[in-house]
Amino acid sequence: MFNIKEELNKLPDSPGVYLMKNSDGEIIYVGKAISLKNRVRSYFNNSSKGAKVISMVSHVESFEYILVSNEVEALVLESNFIKEKKT
């Protein structure tokens, strides 16, 4: 079973792309980060967020990430995932 709190503690402080998934394993959000550790954790902390983010996070059952070498690679990979999801 996927334990979000445990997985958050394993995140590297590296650039990459993250995929948020719902209970059916469907990707519900794709994002990029300079620091996966900081960015992905920010969704699950208690700081104030907008209604859209709160709604999305309430449906997250798991996440995956892909490490890349730099911010540009993260941007390209994120764009490719989004384009693929739209078709």
Describe the structure.
- The protein is of the alpha+beta class and 87 residues long.
- Helix content is 46%, strand content 22%.
- It is globular.
- It starts with a helix and ends with a helix.
- The protein is built from four helices and three strands, in the order αββααβα.
- The relative contact order is 0.25.
Annotation keywords:
87 residues; alpha+beta; three-stranded antiparallel sheet; 4 helices; 3 strands
How many angstroms separate the termini? 30 Å
* Content-based structural category: alpha+beta
Number of strands: 3
The total of helices stands at: 4
Cross-sheet strand order for the largest sheet: 2-1-3
Element string (H = helix, E = strand): HEEHHEH
Backbone CA Rg = 13 Å
Oligomer: single chain
The global form is: globular
Helix content: 40-55%
The proportion of strand residues reads 15-25%
> What ranges have pLDDT less than 50 throughout 5 or more consecutive residues?
none
* Biggest sheet layout: 3 strands, antiparallel
TL;DR of this structure?
With 87 residues, the chain is of the alpha+beta class.
Structural topology:
Elements: H1 4-10, E1 16-21, E2 27-33, H2 36-44, H3 51-58, E3 62-67, H4 71-86
Antiparallel strand pairs: 1-2, 1-3
